Amino acid sequence: MNGRRLRPVGMSGWSAIVFQREDNRRELIAIDDLLPHLDAWERQ
To answer: How far apart (Å, rounded) are the C-alpha atoms in residues 29 and 17?
Structure first.
C-alpha cells in the first residue's frame, strides 16, 4: 500500500486489520480504507 509491502498478521476487533511492515513494526488499517484498493490487488 502506497508502495510499501504489508503482511497481514491479525485483526483488531471487527473492523481493522493488523499488518506487519518490512521494518517489523505493526500498522492498523481499517477494512473500509482497504476496499478502494481491492481491484488492484486482484490483478496481481
So the answer is: 5
Output the CA–CA distances (angstroms, integers) from residue 13 to 8, 20, 22, in the order listed.
14, 17, 23
- pTM as predicted: 0.76
Please report, for residues 4, 16, 20, 22, 40, the alpha-carbon distance to residue 36 in angstroms, rounded to integers and kept in the order given. 16, 15, 20, 23, 9
Tell me if 41 sits within 8 A of 35, measured CB to CB: no
6-34 confidence digits (pLDDT tens)? 999 999 999 999 999 999 999 999 999 99
